[in-house]
Each structure stands twice: as structure tokens, then as C-alpha cells.
């Protein structure tokens, strides 16, 4: 007898009407027609059961702070940074914890159970670090939260940033961060990449850098990051986030850059919602999209995962903790609307992001952690189209969130009385 069996589920790999048996906090079996009983059963009725969504790039210290101290009138990255600089001295641990916990509630409701959050270390008080370390401990039963020491104002540009970052790591922050394109010079940016990779190698930590988040095609710090990754033996443990300058780079240069990134096994984290909103702001027409070269990076074998980045903060007034919204935008901006394209996009919200974060026990195979979400959609393609309700969210074998199916009542004579949008896709 199992603790929970999910019956008649479709899986992201294309298997259909599969049963998933859960014993304790692990998946005990995945097969068609499991002949066993359980304390509780869920009939998925041919809907998609997926491993939970993963957000490998977020700013939880800023989330839900929209309008504090005022709105971003220009909608630009630089005004957002300036606004955050005004808000930062007023931040309290209590307010930071409250907003972060509220966001985590929203994340759970969306089946988002793993998040990597950058934590600004530019304020020497490190109140952001104290708050997010508390949040990491409090949400551990239901969310895997990783923290990145992020020198928002520049590792060398901001006085005291070097000491603050080291103190944040000493306090227990998980990942070394950086922002080389925000240093005063290109050479300072390259020097910061070298210094931060050295720290990561010495401490045995991963690296995740905001890298080349600009429209400037000459911002090429990802080249330095790949080279230092190889030099310090950090292959597979380094992520380059954003990489928007690659959108504007010369094709010949990129033809040399991508193989270097592949050799270094760089994890790539575009942020489609933010990149399409903030980039190209200085263009008239035609306007650049600003998203990095997702298709080409995937085709080169790099691990590409998508981040939400921001939700209702100085940089982005929208957002809902729904990673399918991120994937939906990626399909449009990257022009990846083919069947196989969409499968890759879905992977970038789940298995690829789990690889970026180094999550143990992630997946829907026997022996994996019993973490999954059942969606009101039959497959990943439909999930990306509909951004459907999460019918059940399960963490370590326990149901921690439910949402009723979205079904409309139709009051038109001669037509069906109920409409379920998840039943409208033609067979392919």
C-alpha cells in the first residue's frame, strides 16, 4: 500500500495514462496500471503531471515592492537600479521577510517549488542577506531556495562591496554572483569576473553572474566568464544570466563565442519577460528584442533555462510567479513555435533549470523526490499555450496546494453548457 497514487496522468516525455505511486517522500513507481492501493488517490484524467517548475533567476529581496519609493516612470533598467538604490537604505528585515514569504505563497500556488534568488550585498548592513537567510530556512519544507551574493552596485565600483560579498558568503549564501558590465570600465569588469571565479573555486561554490545585460554588442564579459570557468576548473558550475548583448553582437564573433561557452559548460539563463521589457529602450525603429540567442545556444548543446527575474518591483510592474508565462513569452520572442521548440521551452522551465540549480532527486522517475504538479492541460504544448490552473501541487508526497479546474458556464441556447479550454486543442 502506497501513501498516494496519481492515476491516468500524461507525462512531459509523451507517455500517457501513467500511474505514479508515492511512498513517503519518494516516487516509488511510475507505470501503466499499477495494481496497488493507497491512502489517497488522484485521478488526473489524462492531464499533465510534471516535475515542479524551477526559477533559476529571481530577486526575492525586491519582490512585491512596486511603488516604493515611487514608480519607474521610464521603465528602464537604469531607473530601476536608481529606485532600488533609494529604497535600499529604508529596508527592514521584517518587511523583507514578509514580502518574500508572501511571494513564496504565490509561487507554491503556481507549482514553483525551487527558486534561485540574487540577494543585493551592496548595503553594508546586509539586512537583505539576513532576511533571505531567514526566509530560506522558513520555506525549506516547501521550496528549495538558493541565494546568490549579488553586488548590485558593482564588485569594484561600489565601496565596501568586496568585503560585503565575502561576509555574505561567510553567513551562508550559496552562490557567488557578479555584474561585470556595471563596473566603470571593461577592464574592471573582466577583473571582477576573475576575482569572483577565484573566490568560488576557493570556497567550492557555484557562480551565477548577471552578464552583459545591455544592448551594447561590445559588452563581452561572457567571453571572460567562460575562459575563467575553464581556468578555475568550474565547468558546469557557472551560469551566465541575461546575456542580452549577444542579441546585438556580430555573427562571426558569436560563431567563436558559443563554442567557448559550450567548452566551459556554461549554464545560460535568459529572462524573457524582463529582457523584452527593458532592452532596446534607446532604439527608435526597428527595435531590438533584446533576448539572447536561445535557439542557437540550445542547438550548440548548452543548458538553457529561463528565469522570471522580477515580480512587481522597481524593474517590472507585472509578473505572477507563473513560469509558464515566462515560457509563453519565450516562444514568441525567440520565435520557437514548432512542436519540438515548445518541448525545449518547457524543459527550460523544469529539467534544465533544475540542472542549473544542481537539484538532487528532481524528476518523475522511480526514486526521485515526490515533488510534482498536475496541470489542467494534456501536454507541455498545451500548458504553454493556456498557462492553466495547477490542479494539485505535491511536495515530498504531500498535497500542499490545490486549484479548481477553470471551467466556464455557457448560457447560450443550443450550445454546450460548460466550456473547458483545455479540451480545445486539435489532435497532432
Automatic annotation (TrEMBL):
Superkingdom in the source lineage: Bacteria
Alphabetized UniProt keyword annotations: Hydrolase, Metal-binding
Pfam families xref list: Amidohydro_3
Domain annotation Amidohydrolase: ranges: 40-400
Enzyme Commission number(s): 3.5.4.1
Top-level EC class as recorded in UniProt: hydrolase
UniProt GO molecular function: cytosine deaminase activity; isoguanine deaminase activity; metal ion binding
A biological-process GO annotation: cytosine catabolic process
Alphabetical list of CDD domains matching this protein: Bact_CD (cd01293)
InterPro entries in the cross-refs: Amidohydro_3, Metal-dep_hydrolase_composite, Metal_Hydrolase, Metallo-hydrolase_Enzymes
Entry-linked NCBIfam families: PRK07572.1
Protein name (Swiss-Prot/TrEMBL): Cytosine deaminase
Organism: Sinorhizobium saheli
